[in-house]
Amino acid sequence: MAAQLYKTESGRLFHAGAVAIITVGLPARGKTHVSRSLCRYLRWLGVSTKVFSVGNYRRERMGTIPNDWFDPRNVDAVTVREKIAEDCLDDMIQWLEDGGNQVGIYDGNNVTEERRREIYDKLTSHNINVIYYLIRKSICTKTEIVYANIRSVKISSPDYVGWDPEEAVEDYKHRIERLMEHYETISDTGIPFVKLLNVGEKIIVNNVMGYLQSRMVYYLMNLHVQPRKIYFARTGETDHIECYKGDDELSAEGHAYAKALKEFVVNYRAQAKDSSGNSEEQERPLAVWTSTRRKARQTAQPFADAGFAVRQHSVLTQINPGEVDGMTLAEIKEQYPEELKRARADPYRHRYPRAEVNYTCNNIIMIIT
Q: Judging by DSSP bridges, how do beta strands 103-107 and 133-139 pair with one another?
């Protein structure tokens, strides 16, 4: 979790009040992936966030249903599905009005202007201020992206348990085609919205204001849906292992570790390349992120010598442990017994004297491929 700078009586942060994020778009556009990813990010910031999935509500109440239930011309089916969607929205409103909860993500298609206006009016009537109302629209004009999403995610959903994969793909395509006939793009520029085109190829931001909302937009601008591998590694040893202030160079063992780390990662990627058969993954370059500390830079030097991209980021730097710098746990217990109790009771927010946060953070390097 990121460092939370303050608390408020309501439990809501950044003076943003209650925020409702409404997803808009046809199926298989990545709405659920973005909703869950954004939810994790906001929780990491310390913001109370929850996803309300219309699809999950429908599956819990109805189980697997035939494809014609997704036909907008099926009046009986539309009535039932609208009732489920409305119940999901009501639950989100009730959750937002419960003390301290701040961001509700309403994950559904919401493909018509009429439906979006109904949602907008209902939320504002519950004192969910319009300035904090964000609509995210996910658009995919490249059919290969849509079909790849169907094959990788949708055919494994509870709707298609026991189905033949090819039949499931065709069935889901028909579901999309039926909704496409009634799809209406967002045209009301008086409300805030973010449009994502082709999973981040292009982004359009309209009338989005506020610090928390801007953090959401920044996250969406840097979001990707294709899998990536991230490896975490400790920096090599120095002669003063427990000392933060020294910023020492690597010891002989540390340099040996750095070279071995580079060889291990290169060989591991080569083996993965031979076994995966994924040409797209094979072409993805390897990048190494380190802190600005000397031992971190030196640990990554063998990667730089081999031609890999190495970037330094201050946010990866070891956090200053303050007056407990260089102490063992036994020494801290002896000299700061009350501080140690407070640290164990609230390890996230506790700060030792003159420290930035807690004493357990260490330098790492991140290897991203």
A: unpaired
List phi, psi (to 5°) of 51: -95, 130
Q: Residue 282: is its pLDDT beyond 70?
A: no
Distance CA 303, CA 311 (A): 11
Identity of the amino acid at 287: A
Q: Decide if pLDDT at 311 tops 70.
A: yes
Averaged pLDDT, 143-164: 63
Q: Give, as one character, the DSSP assignment of residue 167.
A: H
**CA nearest neighbour of 351 among 326, 322, 327:** 322
Order the strands of the 309-312 sheet from edge to edge: 230-234, 364-368, 287-290, 309-312
- The four Cα atoms 310, 315, 317, 318 give a dihedral, to 10 degrees, of -150
Question: What is the tens place of the pLDDT at every residue in 166-215?
Answer: 777 777 777 777 777 777 777 788 788 888 776 667 788 888 888 888 88
Cα gap 315→290, rounded to integer Å: 9
Of 94-108, 165-179, 342-356, which has the strongest mean pLDDT? 94-108
Residues 6+ apart with CB under 8 A from 324: 332, 336, 352, 353, 355, 359
Task: Let me know: does 88 contact 53? Beta carbons within 8 Å.
Answer: yes
- Measured over the CA atoms of residue 222, residue 223, residue 229 and residue 234, the dihedral's sign is positive
- The pTM assigned to this predicted structure is 0.68
Given a contact cutoff of 8 angstroms between Cβ atoms, the answer to whether 297 and 250 are in contact is no
Q: How far apart are CA 206 and CA 25, in angstroms?
A: 17
